[in-house]
């Protein structure tokens, strides 16, 4: 739900984003990353008030480099995001929520962007935008102890708003989240088991075929023929290979040869 994701960003970063396209500069994603990994992103180079495409692209490149610094293996479709493709922004924002919302923050969002260009007063500028935000406030964002009093007051006000928009709120349920995560793991485990069983069947079939070939060659009256020697040699390497991989897929193959 876009509204829920934007409510999370607004609450967590202390901003007033109304549409997902407002995040196309990448600055807020950098800000979000810096809350959890302040030592792995160059926030002094992030531009919160950039208008030119080359500066916007630089923000996204800073974020991509930061991902690599902490071994987050996710490619960022920079061109699509700069152009404001809502679907790409929605996918990235959903991923960011799934990845970051349960992590422990290192510093608060306002401090994290205080040394960026336009970052110190960014939350005030966003709050002074014309019109009121149509984004419903959600209740699942907890206020960490590190937040200052002004941020806590902002969160309290947002919580009050969320009560008035209760029908649109989707509270975060950690138990339900764990259930879904466990279910996904079980499905992956079952799929891996099926693939492993398929490999075992294929291994057995091929090994039996080569065993029959080896028996025919061993029973041939002239063992000195070059063709027989070559087939026996190939069969030997194949048997050695199957015996080696048998240790990795948990099934001995001695009984097949016998």
UniProtKB/TrEMBL annotation:
- The UniProt entry's coiled-coil ranges are 182-209
The answer to keyword Ribonucleoprotein applying to this record is: no
Question: Which keywords describe this protein according to UniProt?
Answer: Coiled coil
Which regions span the lipid bilayer? Answer: none
**InterPro entries attached to this UniProt entry:** CH_dom (IPR001715), CH_dom_sf (IPR036872), MAPRE (IPR027328)
Which residue numbers delimit the Calponin-homology (CH) domain? 1-101
The yes or no answer to whether the keyword Acetylation is present is: no
What GO MF annotations does this protein's record show? microtubule binding
Comp. bias (Polar residues): 116-137
In terms of PROSITE patterns, this protein maps to: CH
Q: State the residue spans of region: Disordered.
A: 116-174
What PANTHER family does UniProt report for this protein, alphabetically?
MICROTUBULE-ASSOCIATED PROTEIN RP/EB FAMILY MEMBER
Protein name listed in UniProt: Calponin-homology (CH) domain-containing protein
């Amino acid at each position: 739900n876009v509204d829920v994701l934007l409510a999370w960003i607004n609450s967590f970063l202390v901003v007033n984003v109304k549409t997902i396209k407002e995040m196309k500069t990448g600055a807020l994603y950098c800000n979000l990353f810096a809350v959890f990994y302040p030592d792995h992103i160059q926030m002094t180079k992030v531009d919160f008030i950039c208008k030119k495409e080359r500066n916007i692209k630089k923000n996204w490149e800073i974020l991509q480099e930061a991902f690599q610094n902490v071994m987050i293996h996710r490619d960022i479709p920079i061109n699509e995001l700069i152009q404001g493709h809502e679907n790409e922004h929605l996918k990235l924002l959903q991923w960011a929520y799934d990845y970051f919302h349960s992590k422990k923050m290192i510093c608060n969002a306002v401090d994290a962007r205080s040394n960026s260009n336009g970052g110190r007063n960014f939350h005030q500028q966003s709050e002074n935008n014309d019109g009121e935000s149509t984004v419903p406030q959600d209740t699942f964002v907890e206020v960490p102890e590190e937040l200052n009093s002004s941020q806590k007051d902002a969160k309290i006000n947002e919580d009050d708003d969320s009560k008035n928009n209760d029908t649109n709120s989707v509270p975060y349920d950690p138990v339900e989240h764990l259930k879904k995560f466990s279910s996904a793991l079980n499905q992956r485990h079952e799929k891996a088991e099926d693939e492993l069983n398929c490999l075992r069947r294929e291994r057995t079939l091929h090994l039996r075929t080569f065993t029959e070939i080896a028996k025919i060659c061993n029973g041939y009256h002239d063992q000195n023929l070059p063709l027989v020697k070559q087939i026996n040699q190939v069969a030997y390497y194949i048997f050695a290979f199957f015996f080696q991989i048998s240790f990795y897929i948990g099934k001995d193959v001695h009984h097949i040869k016998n």
